[in-house]
Amino acid sequence: MSAGPTPTEVDVVIVGAGVVGCALARELGRWPWRVALVDAADDVGDGTSKANTALLHTGFDAIPGSLESRLVARGYELLRDYASAAGIPVEPVGALLVAWAQEQLEALPGLAEKAAQNGYAATRLVDVPELYAREPFLGPGALGALEVPDESIICPWTTTLAFATEALAQGVALMLGTELLSIEPRPDGGFLLETSRGRVSSTYLVNAAGLRSDEVDHMAGHHGFTVTPRRGELVVFDKLARAKVSHILLPVPTSRGKGVLVAPTIFGNVMLGPTAEEVGDKRATGSTEAGLADLRRHAARILPALLEEEVTATYAGLRAATEHSDYQVRLHPDQGYVCVGGIRSTGLTASMAIAEHVATLMGDAGWLAGEHRPSEPPSMPNLGEAFPRPFEQAGRIAADPAYGQIVCFCERATRGELRDAFASPIPPVSMEGLRRRTRAGMGRCQGFACGAELAALVEDATRS
After folding, report:
1. pLDDT tens across 274-332, in order?
2. How far is CA 338 from CA 148, 207, 216, 357, 438, in A?
3. Fewer CB atoms inside 10 A, N or C side of the chain?
4. Where are the beta strands (DSSP E) in 127-276?
5. Radius of gyration (Cα) for the chain, nearest Å?
6. Intra-chain end-to-end CA distance of the chain, in Å
7. Which pTM was predicted?
8. In angstroms, rounded to a whole number, what is the distance separating the alpha carbons of residues 167 and 24?
9. pLDDT tier at 406 (50, 70, 90 boundaries)?
C-alpha cells in the first residue's frame, strides 16, 4: 500500500516506517519539504514497533548523561501530551521494582539515585507490608520495592499510526511495500535510491530502519555499529487475570535489559515477558518452547496466580541491540545523511524526542529551510479498555447503529469500527493490520468465531 504515485525526486527519504520513522516523518513533514517514508512492509509499525512491551517510560533507569536518557525523558513528556491530544490511550499505573534477594534490596537506593541523576525524583522505597497490601497476589519472599509512580502503559499500535496519519496529512509520500535495494551517491550531491518500485532521487537520507539500520548504514558507506537481534518472547493472559495485578512489576535491571516483567496492558490483559536471547536471524520472531518455559518459571515467582489463568496469545519481538550502550544517532553533514540506529525498547517513548533531536541536528547543519508549519494531531479511535469504547456509547449507537453491531465478541469490536478502519487514511491490508486498528480477532478465541468474516472484509477492501 502506498499513498499516491511513487515519487521520483524528493528532498528527504526516511527509511523505516516503525514508530521512530513515523515520528520522523511527522516532524520533518512540518517543513516545506518533499518527504518520502519508505518501508518494505505493507503497513506502518509492522516490525519491532508492533511487538514491544507497550510501556511509556520515565527513563529512570537509563544511563545518566547518555543520549538515550535525555531523549527518553523528553520523549515521555512529548508523547504523554500528544497521546492526550490524539486520543491514544495511556494509563499511568506506576511501576514497582521488586527485590527478591538481599543484594537486589541493597541496590534499590542506588537505583533511586540513578533516577534522580536522570531528572526523575519521584521514586520511593516501599517496605514489605505496603508492597503486599498493594499487590496481594505477589509471590512470597519479596523483600521490598522501589516505586516509580509515573511509569505508564500505552497503545503502541495507535501511536505509530497517529504519527503516520499526521505525516500523510502534511503531504509525506508513504511508500509501503517498497524495499530499499541500494544507495548510490548522486554526482551533484545527495542520493540515488534503488527500490523495488523504481529509483528515487533524494537530497537527504534519514536511516530509521530498526533491525536493518546497520545494513542501510553500510549501504550509505558507514560501519559504525552492528545490530544483533535480541528476541523477547512474551505471553498475554486473558482479561480475567487483570484483577491480579495493579502495577507494572519490574525486576531489578541488569546490563542485558529490564528483565522479565508482569504488567497490565492497555487492552485489559496481563502481559508476562520479555525474555532476552540474541539470535542471528532478523526474522526469528517465533515463540520457542524454552522461552515459554522460562517465562513460566518467572511467573511462578513473581505472580504465581497468573499460571492459573488462560493464555490468550504468545508472541516475540526483536530488539535492535548493538555493541554500544547508547542510541546511535549520527549526522554526516558532508553527505546529507543521518543515521538513527540502535534504538532499543525505549524507542516508543523516545520517538518524538528522537525526531525533534534529528530536526535540530539537520537545522544546525543548515539543511532546514523555510518556515516550520504547525500541525494538528489526528483524532484516533480508542482501543483502551479503561476508556469508553463505541459499543458502550448509547448516543453514538443511536446516531450510527453500526457502532452497536459487534463482530468480534471477545474484544467488542463493532462493524462501525471496522468500517472506519478501512476508510481511514492508512487502511489495513491484512488481518494483522485490522487487528492493530480495531482489536478485532485479538481476544480469547483469537479469531475463531469472527475470523472468516474479518478475512472476507480484508479481501474485499484490498481487492477494490
Report:
1. 999 999 889 888 899 999 999 999 999 999 999 999 999 999 999 899 999 999 999 99
2. 34, 6, 11, 11, 34
3. C
4. 144-148, 152-154, 173-175, 180-185, 191-195, 198-207, 228-237, 248-250, 261-264, 270-273
5. 22
6. 12
7. 0.96
8. 9
9. very high
